[in-house]
Write a structure and sequence with these properties.
By secondary structure, this protein is α+β, with helices and mostly antiparallel strands. Among the domains are: 132 residues, Dna Topoisomerase Vi A Subunit, Chain: A, domain 2, CATH 3.40.1360; 88 residues, no CATH class; 109 residues, Dna Ligase, domain 1, CATH 3.30.1490. Helix content is 31%, strand content 26%. Strands 13, 14, 15, 20, 23, 24, 31, 34 and 35 form a nine-stranded mixed β-sheet that branches. A hairpin with a 4-residue loop joins strand 29 and strand 30.
């Protein structure tokens, strides 16, 4: 009903497509439009206008708008951020270049380290120093700060990162430098590490702060433009941004800490998978999100995605830990590889077919888009194998040209390898599927998880086409494809809580615990986080989750443990010790009796609650729906074309069962059901693919 102001709108800007999802009452509307890289907000506004027209709503009917974007990630990967300067303590100019002082690839003599975001000639030092215990050693040289300002002017820097030693404990000097810049150079963007990442370990803190400074001007300008376009378009609702940790934050906070927006889109997909897992009673889940540029894989246990505070972006070596820029931000832990519909296929120097990690994006896009692309992509391969209906791609908004897809596959793969078009396309598909399967195996093994007993939840424009083949490679018997799978991350935005995490480094040994001081710190952190969340949810009930990074005394790495509720006291400290030893035993198979425990970091997250949805009973009756059409599709098992039944997803009802081979089509994607699988629609309208002969699936 127009004028009710209760519609919810989500916008997910990806590397190839911009996805729009709108919910109004019990109805959902969605659109996919090509991303406009030079001005992403323009493509977003086009999609918003289209989905509002479909819903018969006006901008004033939207009560909340949630946005996620790859712009921050892409700026770091492509090095298209601001000219940035770094101010640090004397003697620590080269911290971000020295990094961990190790080699992430021991035997590669040509190994390249990640290039720092701030080159050495724009890194400046000033006299100041606090000790690791917070005692003043050297006062801040304010004259030296003003001398540095002149050098920054000469370097024509747009943004400044201020990173002093031990500022996580004593932030006064960093805050004073920010005040000096605010007075003398208010046009410069300034990021201080005591706000961006107030934690021990200076390299990660410096790297995170430099990344925030590097993308802040770009993100601030972009978000301001987008907000202005929305206001000019008649929107009066609040704009929230999706964060990498799976929560929502305000526009102002996002502009202040844009580094927390890195991986915001994939986080929305994990939130969607979390809800679907709870709805279907699937306690062990592999979330699979494949879009136009990347594929993302996340493990979900007990309806909670795995989380971390360590993240790397812009890795020099694909999937090799240590080869990227480290960020200390709250993040949903997942593996992301350059494997999407736009991933480019080619022959390498060893005459092997390789796919990705580079993508054709939306400009020019895959060859079949007819927008000037010459390189074959995964989407071109799917078109050649007739997995995709050229007339219905993206709901008919993008008319595909199969002849151009075939020509590109033949020129780059078929002729050099002496293969027919369909076999060359099949090879492209098999290589990308095996690449994703290998990434999932490694991700699970590194975390001590068994991947084959999991349920896969697949979404994203390309995932439903590849999910069954990926499941076969991983030994997974059950796959769930939710409604709106093609715009899954955008729908996930609508399920995300408004939240904010505050972290502080404070050393406490259990044997000499300072309860009053620590409880005061935790209360202050909760108040700080609550203030941010209340800005977006002034009347909602809130939940608080507190954790600490603990280790045995003398160890170099920590594990995260949940704190007991309420103020800490001697009895709760013993509970915390028991929780630590339980988690430690799960990780390492043993505990260390008689050794004291120490805490390094304390984290407090305040959020609106995530409600566990009720499960619905399966339909009592089932039917075998009649196919709307059929077409020959290249079959992986037979290595030849075979007739596949075509079903329209909107025509299916809960309880319907279909035996593979089949393709189930909808506006934003298509689900490929190989001969070895059956599929049924459950009570929620989700497609559940089961490998024939396997145990029953969760509903």
């Amino acid at each position: 009903m127009a004028g009710s102001n209760d519609a919810r709108l989500a916008v997910d800007i990806g590397g190839t497509f911009t996805d729009i999802a709108l919910e109004h009452g019990s109805k959902r509307f969605s659109k996919k439009v090509l991303t406009t890289p030079r001005a992403p907000e323009l493509g977003a506004m086009e999609g918003i206008g289209a989905v509002l027209a479909d819903a018969g709503l006006r901008p004033s009917d939207v009560g909340i708008l949630i946005h996620g974007t790859t712009l921050a990630t892409n700026a770091l990967i492509e090095r298209k951020g601001a000219v940035t300067a770094l101010i640090t303590t004397e003697g620590f100019r080269d911290t971000i270049e020295m990094a961990f002082e190790n080699r992430f690839e021991q035997y590669d003599v040509y190994m390249d380290r990640p290039t720092p975001l701030v080159p050495r000639h724009r890194r400046y030092t000033v006299a100041e120093r606090f000790s690791a215990r917070g005692q003043m050693i050297t006062p801040l040289d304010e004259a030296g700060v003003r001398a540095v300002i002149e050098k920054i002017d000469s370097a024509k820097a747009e943004s400044v990162a201020v990173c002093f030693l031990h500022s996580y404990l004593r932030p006064e000097h960093e805050l004073r430098v920010r005040d000096i810049f605010a007075k003398e150079r208010p046009d410069l963007s300034v990021s201080v590490s005591c706000e961006v990442s107030p934690e021990i370990r200076e390299y990660e803190r410096f790297s995170t702060t430099c990344a925030n400074a590097y993308i802040q001007p770009l993100m601030s300008r972009y978000l301001a433009r987008f907000d202005r376009l929305l206001q000019d378009g008649g929107f009066s609702c609040p704009l929230f941004l999706m964060t990498s940790g799976g929560g929502l934050t305000t526009l102002e906070n996002a502009m202040h800490l844009p580094v927390r927006l890195v991986e915001s889109g994939p986080a929305g997909g994990a939130i969607l998978a979390r809800q679907i897992a709870a709805e279907c009673g699937a306690e062990e889940v592999l979330s699979f999100d494949m879009g136009g540029t990347t594929a993302k894989i996340c493990l979900i246990d007990g309806y909670e995605p795995q989380r971390s505070r360590n993240f790397e972006v812009a890795r020099e070596f694909r999937n090799l830990k240590g080869s990227g820029l480290p960020l200390r931000i709250p993040v949903i832990e997942m593996v992301e590889i350059g494997a999407g519909g736009g991933s480019i296929a080619r022959i390498d120097r060893l005459d092997r077919i390789t796919v990705g990690p580079d993508s054709a994006g939306s400009e020019p896009g895959p060859a079949c888009y007819g927008r000037g692309g010459q390189n074959p992509t995964v989407t071109d391969a799917d078109v050649v194998m007739q997995r995709i209906d050229p007339a219905r791609f993206a709901g008919g908004k993008v008319k595909l040209e199969p002849a151009k897809a075939t020509a590109a596959v033949d020129a780059a793969i078929g002729k050099p390898m002496n293969m027919e078009s369909e076999l060359a396309a099949f090879a492209i598909s098999e290589i990308i599927d095996e690449g994703m399967a290998n990434a999932a195996r490694v991700h699970a093994i590194e975390r001590g998880k068994v991947v084959s007993r999991r349920t896969m939840i697949a979404f994203g424009g390309a995932a439903p086409l590849h999910t069954a083949r990926l499941a076969q490679r991983l030994g997974i018997d059950r796959v769930i494809v939710p409604t709106g799978a093609g715009v899954g991350s955008a729908i996930g935005f609508l399920r995300a809580p408004i939240s904010f995490e505050v972290v502080r480094s404070r050393y406490e040994r259990f044997g000499s615990f300072r309860f009053d001081e620590l409880n005061g710190l935790l209360r202050a952190m909760e108040s700080e986080a609550t203030t941010v969340v209340r800005a977006g949810a002034p009347k909602a009930s809130l939940v608080c989750h507190r954790t600490a990074d603990l280790r045995y005394v003398g160890q170099g790495h920590e594990i995260t443990v949940t704190l007991p509720q309420g103020d800490l006291d001697p009895s709760k400290l013993e509970q915390l010790r028991a929780s630590f030893e339980k988690v430690y035993l799960e990780h390492y198979g043993r505990i260390v009796p008689g050794l004291d425990v120490e805490a390094i970091n304390w984290m407090v997250t305040v959020s609106t609650p995530f409600g566990t949805p009720a499960r619905l009973a399966e339909p009592a009756e089932s039917r075998r729906p009649k196919a709307s059409a059929s077409r020959p599709v290249f079959d992986a098992d037979q290595s030849s074309f075979r007739d596949y039944a075509i079903h329209r997803r909107p025509d299916l009802r809960p309880g319907d069962k279909i035996t593979g081979p089949a393709i189930i089509v909808e506006d934003e994607t298509s689900t490929l059901v190989p001969p070895a699988f059956d599929v049924h629609m459950n009570a929620l309208g989700y497609l559940v693919l089961e490998r024939r002969g396997s145990e029953g699936a969760a509903t």
